[in-house]
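Example 3.
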Amino acid sequence: MAKKKSREPWLERYSAVLLAAFVLGGWQILVPLAGLSEFVLPTPLAIAKRMVSQFSLLATHSYVTLFEVLAGFAIGVLVGVPLALAIFYSRAFERAIYPLLVAMQTVPKVALAPLLVLYLGYGWAPKITLAFLISFFPIVISTVVGLQSLDKNLVSLVRSMGASEWQTFFKVRLPAALPNIFGGFKVAISLAVIGAVIGEYVAAERGLGYLQLQANSLFDTTLNFATVVTISVLGVVLYYAIDFIERRVSHKRDAAK
Amino acid sequence: MNATVQPVNASTGTGAAVNIDSLSKVYKTREDDDLLALDRIDVQFEPGSFVAVVGPSGCGKSTLLSLMAGLTDATTGAIVIDGEGVSKPHPKVGVVFQSDLLLYWRTVLDNILLPIEIKKLDLARYRSRAEELLAQVGLEGFGNKFPSELSGGMRQRVAICRALIQEPGLLLMDEPFGALDALTREQMIMDLQAMWLRVRNTVLFITHGIDEAVFLADRVLVMSPRPGRIDLDLKIDMPRPRQWGNVHENKAYNGYVRQIREIFEAKGILVAH
């Protein structure tokens, strides 16, 4: 993008920052002008100040949510990827499991949260389960699609070199599917955050969802907003963590172009 | 790749002998009418000969290649390479496909070394060989580039290096220049001749192009479809190295091309208006 010839390279490069600054600045200025109290709508600066002053409170609850998200996502990967492999390698298994998967996907996972609490109690378990359930589907689908979209001639090529199926998988199938798989991981980790927070809304004693409900009941709108911002930051950080790992293990198809 | 490059291990006589005996291939279709792709093909390749196969789409030439590469099983008959029957991919065989099939996440050098990795041979030993091959095709110093940084012609050269890394006795080429632009194709045809004159392995070159088949080959097999049969086995008697620039003024060359065209015209594959 930066190399593209443009009459406004400066504006193009900083457009996102400028827009954000414009929105936040407008918000900051308009709230006192409109005479809104902090209880109704706190200003961005007030939220930022609160995030600094209550950093340790937010951090404590963030760790809880982070753990639930990572655990749910990890289980999603550990179950989803092998399931995708089974679907890819076995036509019979694909026939058997695919309708079930799709049916499962049509169930709104959020609606399962109260049931999960009923079965699994108030601790980690229902949040991790919800994060897992909600992140698992995109992992399976993107892995299957990644494996299926391979050029068949590539398989002929490595087979002509005498490759076993094991070698074909690790030399060709898996690396070629990685961009798709990581695409699924990115969707999944964002969804896992939603799953964990919703689990905390239903019944929890810790976590960012719980903290938000506490702020709500205390009419502390600034803390409420501070929690929302923290949840988004958590999501963004996790997304870019996956992106970072992807850059380490997978070569972008058109990186050089 | 030009003819002045000194021959690296000028190993004449590395070509494999190929014996194809009454080879047939039937593809099962959903209906009862099975498709006879190859019908009792009998042909022998001299070690170190360059054999081209020309024919229209669907004449079974790609099936023939697939069988020789050990990727498909014959319905009846046999292929014997240097005395060994082919039932699975043979270690003495290298294959070049129409598209380069380079792995985009690997560097040029690692792409060339892929067969070595798969066969679990000593990578260090073959690394210098890969660099030599790159230099021979005019890609010296490109080893650490990624395929996306190369042009179509360069990529196909890398694919040829990959097929040659193990000095295959038999090189199978399936329309290797079919995806290239006309100018790049011309250059690649001349470069392939120069390379083959150095290596002198046995080559099976499958193509749609009558011109490149006659120019490159010692022998052209003309095939027609349904069932796939060899209609003409034409020995090309022209001295080498042949020059693409003036071959079209060569009487013998034009005679061979004429003979092949006549077959396609007789079969209704080429129709004059």
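Residues 102-167 of chain B form one domain. The two ends of chain B are 41 Å apart (CA to CA).
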